[in-house]
Amino acid sequence: MAPSSSKADKKGAADAAAWMFNVVTSVGIIIVNKALMATYGFSYATTLTGMHFATTTLMTGVLRWLGYIQSSHLPFPELLKFVLFANFSIVGMNVSLMWNSVGFYQIAKLTMIPVSCLLEVLFDKIRYSRDTKLSIGVVLLGVGVCTITDVSVNTKGFIAAFIAVWSTSLQQYYVHYLQRKYSLNSFNLLGHTAPAQAATLLVLGPFLDYWLTNKRIDTYDYSAVSVMFIVISCTIAVGTNLSQFICIGRFTAVTFQVLGHMKTILVLIMGFFFFGKDGLNLHVVLGMIIAVVGMIWYGNASSKPGGKERRSLSLPTSRPQKQSNLSESDEHDGKV
């Protein structure tokens, strides 16, 4: 019993550390980017994302040179599909935010959880218990109460949101899928995907940003402070990209989405703390409480036997697994 308990404790501690790493870097990059864009007028979000992946590419290159990343294989068609999903996700989110009201944009983001559930049911044969489904509904309700204000819909905004939701859900599902199928750890997968995303976003980003903002990046008035914020943003983004792959590899896309709304709550709380209590009212506080209760319920419900389990283990791996980094998260059907 003792070895099994010790192993479970170690896995729990590693899961918590991975999640905290993602929360800290994600919230940090939101705050830095908000200052960079709102205070210093650097509104080139797509190009900035390309810079993030270029920095991540540099990091994976250094680690490979130092011997911390082993050589691995990812077929080009798989890489191409991943990059298409990921880049459509980034562009779709930016366009959706521009063309939709904030309320409808938030509703669209919330639909990623049901879409991710559908992908797991269809492709991974996952079965959810009644309590797990209800807990997801409570999370969606709580976050919706917190964030949804005005809701107006238009045709082009709906199309942009539809593309953003499905491409993001597919990209996150694909992270987990590729790690399992090709026995890739998070560093290996980033080493394959980051260069391709950096190249495409740095080439297309300036044109997309000009289309979205009517501002050219080559005319931006750089200052020492704005460059410092860009460097900080790129540095934090390395951790954000890595932690996303680690978390989805250890959990699943659905769990990543559910727990991801904790970051929404934290950003709201930090906004109230740093920028005053103008937005702090009863329905926002109530929404936060509902969302947190739902997350706790989801964690409890999905970890119980039958809470969330795979009906069949049919996904083959393309070759024997060399690394043990991810094996602990694939050992049982009821992984959350």
Automatic annotation (TrEMBL):
It is a multi-pass membrane protein. Pfam families: TPT. It is found in: Membrane. Its main location: membrane. Keywords: Membrane, Transmembrane, Transmembrane helix. GO terms for cellular component: membrane. It comes from the Eukaryota. Residues 314-327 have a biased composition (Polar residues). InterPro entries: Sugar_P_trans_dom, TPT_transporter. Residues 24-298 form the Sugar phosphate transporter domain. Residues 303-336 are annotated as: Disordered. The chain crosses the membrane at residues 12-32, 44-67, 79-97, 134-151, 157-175, 187-208, 220-239, 251-274, 280-301. This is UDP-RHAMNOSE/UDP-GALACTOSE TRANSPORTER 6.
